[in-house]
Amino acid sequence: MNLILNSYCNLKCNYCFADEYMEENVKTPGKSMDYEFFIGEMLPRVKNVTLINFMGGEPTLHPRFNDILSSTLETMQPFAYLGVFTNGLMPDKTLDLLLKTVGPEGSIQRQIQFSILLNWQTKENISERNHQRCREVAEAFLGENANSLMFSLNLYSVEQDLETQCREIDAIYQDMGLPEGQSYKIRVSPAFPIVGEQENNVTLPIKDFPRMGRKMVDLLKEFPQLTFRFDCSFPPCLLDSINEEEFPLVERFFYHANQPVPDITKWKDQDLNFGCSDDSPMDIGPTGDCFNCFPFHDFKLGNVQDFKEVNDIAVKKMHTKFLGHVFEDTQAKEPCKSCPHYMVTCTSGCFAYNFV
To answer: Is pLDDT above 80 for 18?
Structure first.
């Protein structure tokens, strides 16, 4: 489950939906998950799931974040996964708790796999001072537990300085002593449209996917320990401009989180779905409303209070409703409609493009 604790942030990135972090927004009903609601209604229904991610906005700015994290760790089942999506600009008391949690006396002792996903920004979305702070935070996590952190990038423009972002991340790993021959993953996600709010955030047009893919392939050549991970859809047109001698680089792309992209020469002989992952974690907003993912946050699939548990059965019921909506209530647009990948290995990248 992706639990969205709030909708405000202390950054204002050009591709993001979040509200500004200020007292008025923190206190506005619906913009922060009520702590009593979390303890009394949310946690009892999700405590048995195998994955919980805390998201926002910037979730660490929630006024009760430390209490929420501690309560969740105490309640989750052994061998489950717990994650925090953050921009790194968190209160010191939260950083202290998270460092303790990734250490040997924290989640490891409780047999829970805990990780931080740190969203790394371009200079147009963050000040130099805050950027340096994010590096210090990243180094602190990696120093405490080398497996506790993964960097994340949003792909919002072919003009963004993706090379500098990757160079900065690579430098952190090299300075921390990454062994030669060991790889690291950077989670990447195209900046998808938000249905109903497309004028409020920058998105990566589908027509630019091949150019973005070209940049990414070149970066794999420049940084030999780098791999790219796509959590949901991996648009295969990203690799439309790849050359034959570059085919071995394809295995350094991962789709649906942990599946390596197969040998590109064998795609035509395999039943592959690089499109929307219908078994991805369900998003749950501050008031308990459930939706498939943030681009479709206005298409409510249910509320946690509709279910005794938000378990695999409940999620499959809601995902079925979502897939009916995206396949039956709209059609693919160009350039997807005429693309040779469409309905062969891809379902149009993100379905949100078909609704805007």
So the answer is: no
